[in-house]
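Task card 7
Instruction: Convert sequence to structure tokens.
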Amino acid sequence: MTEPTRFLDPSDASAVAFFGRNIEGPVTMLNLLRLRETADYAEFPELAPAEPITGRAAYDRYIEHTLPFLRASGGELVYLGAGGDYFVGPKDEGWDLALLIRQDSVQSFLAFATNDEYLAGIGHRTAAVVDSRILPLVDIN
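Output:
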């Protein structure tokens, strides 16, 4: 039996496709997250707390670290909600959290996502998340 495919970061192909859309104006990122029961800081031991914490607690640390950089880049956390099982969809593919992150533009998203100070805390996200989906959404006028 093979391990299911997990998605944590964009692939080169998905990044090319995203930037190739030539989005003008705001973009909203729908984030669906499946969290670890216990956060795994193996890749970022410098960020690890003294005692083990849940994936949710690690993700809360990520949000706290991230919000100032997000806001400074012209972005905002529009929505954060607890998930669960689908009402319509696969019964074995629920999500723990759903977020909507809105950026003024693709350029402001890129400025945010490549900011070294922001990236210094990305390990909290890595420790927290076991699987994710991020879908860029564009307003329909």
